[in-house]
Amino acid sequence: MQIxxxxxxxxxxxxxxxxxxxxxxxxxxxxxxRDIFVAGAQTNGLSKDKGTQLFDLMEKFAGYGFNKSHAxxxxxxxxxxxxxxxxxxxxxxxxxLSAVMNDTDKVQQFHEDALANGLEILAPDVNSGGYRxxxxxxxxxxxxxxxxxxxxxxxINHIIEVREQSGAYQDLFDFCHRVDNRVVNRRVVxxxxxxxxxxGVDDNRAALLASVGLALGSAExxxxxxxxxxxxxxxxxxxxxxxxxxxxxxxxxxxxxxEKAALGYYFSGHPFRSYEAELRGFAPxxxxxxxxxxxxxxLAGIIVSQRIQMTxxxxxxxxxxxxxxxxxxxxxxxxxxxxxxxxxxEDQLLVVEGKVTFDDFSQSxxxxxxxxxxxxxxxxxxxxALKITCNGQSSGDKLRALLTPHLNGPCPVAVEYYNKNARCxxxxxxxxxxxxxxELIASLGEWLQPENVRLTYSNNHx
Length: 462
Hints:
Elements: H1 2-6, H2 12-24, H3 27-43, H4 48-62, H5 68-87, H6 89-99, H7 104-116, E1 120-122, E2 134-137, E3 140-142, H8 153-166, H9 172-178, H10 186-195, H11 205-229, H12 252-263, H13 273-279, E4 297-311, E5 314-322, E6 327-332, H14 334-340, E7 349-359, E8 364-373, H15 375-382, E9 383-391, H16 396-403, E10 407-411, E11 413-418, E12 423-427, H17 438-448, E13 453-457
Parallel strand pairs: 1-3, 6-8, 9-11
Antiparallel strand pairs: 2-3, 4-5, 4-7, 5-6, 7-8, 9-13, 11-12
Helix pairs in contact: 3-4, 5-6, 6-7, 9-11, 10-11, 10-12
């Protein structure tokens, strides 16, 4: 502002307008001020070239410039936080996680930062967790129960208060009988189950979730009985032993999906890892290794979010793909989006063939989809063969029965057969080509063991 006043001939108010224009980086306003400043500099005895050069330097500085007090304050805060992050990492990250615990995107960012710095984030736990994130030791942090979606501070504080008064919860039924179900309702209990907060007492989350209604009903019945017996004097509580519902355990993919529903992101793993070994057969490039290419590339990832935009040609989608190594945006234009919109949803595995370019405006990579495939379609397009390994104890009739519902597909079948005397590979005829569906691979794996059933692709050596 002093330069503008002394050299450019600005008034104090005019110099402040120049400062604002530079701060907002408005090209049209900056062009007007350039002319005013250079003319004022010439009036004050400076050449036009020198005035222009000086304005260019001011404009460059305005791109990212601080006054001294501002810079000093930022430097002090940077030094303090860097010191805490190095010497008290667990406490520092726990405080940061607690500060953003209502914003799951930021919780995920801090979680990833903590892991990158060698810290361990312990899962939510009804018997050891507090409302906020808390350091357990110098290298580990306990997840804050208040960061579980659908809970709330009142419910979590009540859970902690009951635990501190009468000890750890023994199981789901004990939990529901001891807490006030008017404060800790069904939604709270189910969210805690999905997040893994009951794993310390029973790690079968599927059975726990299926039993929440039973446990809450039992607690309500016990409360009514207690109110009745109080009319006639105290009666000792002889609550019968109750058992969880008998249901299949969740597989890893379902477990991660339920965790995301409760925490806002995948906590204990990443669903892409379940597919990674197979996908690398035809989509070898990780998302953190993507570079601009003159030809289309094949990429794969899990859809973690999508937003729809209206254009003159109709609706288009911007999808965010995540393969556990990086996240990247994918643009799907109208015609392709309308063709596949019925299955383009969050948590869906997506294989995309598209062009990767560098966007000068955003200074980032841009991927434009040309073809979209789910895993089933990708297998049918890229699989070279379904290889099955079996020995002399296997049954040809059983193999025929498993293959028959999936015939008339594009994928050849090869059988690697061995016994104590010999080994050979038999390629079944055209009539035995199959659709390589999940159901077929699962049924063959259940019969022969998963390691004896695999799809091979043209660019690998399996």
